[in-house]
Amino acid sequence: MNLQIYEFKILGIWKYNKIIFRQEARNKKMENKINENQGSADNSDLNVPQNNPAPLVSEPVTNNENVSQSQVKYAGFWIRFVAVIIDGIIVFFISLPLIVIFKFVLSIESSGFLNLLSSLISWGYYIYMTDKYQATLGKKAMGIMVVDESLAKASLGNIVLRETVGKIVSAIILLIGYIMAAFTSKKRALHDLIAGTVVIYRN
């Protein structure tokens, strides 16, 4: 009788422990499943695409000479006149060595040839500087530059037309074409009107 009671107690304890173990295993499995779901939710948050991500580096600003209509200030006659004086001195010192070589070394006395040489040097200087930098050294010193009518960089064709045919026409009648910059709209000289250019202050 006592042996049966003892066996019954052992069997009961074993069944009780088995139930407890199964319950703990079930709880552990449920906890793992919850953790997995939470982890996948966190990962999905990390993979959500940003509609408008903030740029890490700002866009570089292009260094061009174009200006808006609201910023433009046109260069008048007198400041352009001073720029011409400065450029005339520069062209003189560029031309002088070549004129000396042709006249005294090569014995070329033709005034027509020497004048043509001086004109070619002057045209080359004005065309190169205006195309490359939008201004000669004289204009740079005065803080002004040449642009087209839309305030963008003038094309090489317009620059060549301005510095050759345009300035020849401006100088034909008592330099009236140059003086026009004092009273015309946007302070344009005749060669500016011919070539479709304007002279403005740099920002």
Describe this structure in words.
The chain is built from seven helices and two strands. With 203 residues, it is mainly α. It has two domains: 36 residues; 125 residues, no CATH class. It has a two-stranded antiparallel ribbon. Helix 2 packs across helix 3 and helix 3 crosses helix 5.
Query: Which structural class is indicated by helix and strand composition?
Result: mainly alpha
- Percentage of residues in DSSP E strands: under 5%
Task: Report the biggest beta sheet as strand number plus sense, adding barrel if it closes.
Answer: 2 strands, antiparallel
Mean pLDDT, to the nearest integer, reads 80
In total, the number of strands is 2
Number of helices: 7
| N-to-C SSE string, H for helix and E for strand | HHHHEHHHE
- Regions with little confidence, pLDDT below 50 for 5+ residues: 1-11, 54-65
CA-CA gap between termini: 114 Å
Q: Name the shape in a single word.
A: elongated
Strand order of the largest sheet: 1-2
| Helix content percent band | 55-70%
Number of domains: 2
Q: Using only CA atoms, what is the Rg?
A: 43 Å
